[in-house]
Amino acid sequence: MTFSTKGRYALRMMLEFALHPNECTKINQVAKRQEISDKYLEQIVTILSRAGFVKSRRGAKGGYFLTKDPSEYTVGMILRLAEGSLVPVACMEDEVNHCHRADVCASLMVWRKLDDAISGVIDGITLADLVEEQRKLDREYHHYEI
Predict the structure, then answer these.
(1) Region 5-145: CATH code
(2) What does the pLDDT look like over 49-63, one tens digit per residue?
């Protein structure tokens, strides 16, 4: 399974907002720090905003901020919003794509286990966990820079 840039960038953008909880973060700040096109980020922030994950504030000190505490967002929530369904095969999507062979398909067990494993990982990691990991990495990086 491969995640698109939209999903990966949405996660990185949400992490940027979470790393700066007491300020509004401008799209161009995220773009610069994450080395991502600000035009692409504007499209992604629209999705995040419509879902109520972030809000915007206008003005000189304006920008975007999280609507909830980082501990209330899971990686799975963010990826599913940006990517849509994350099931590994179309026959698991919904009733429309439901395979008529599902009741007799032994390989479906593989896809269900894979889906459970992926969901277990991405739903078990919060944005707060990523903030902690990023800060740890930043400390280690700056330690080696000296």
Answers:
(1) 1.10.10.10
(2) 999 999 999 988 899
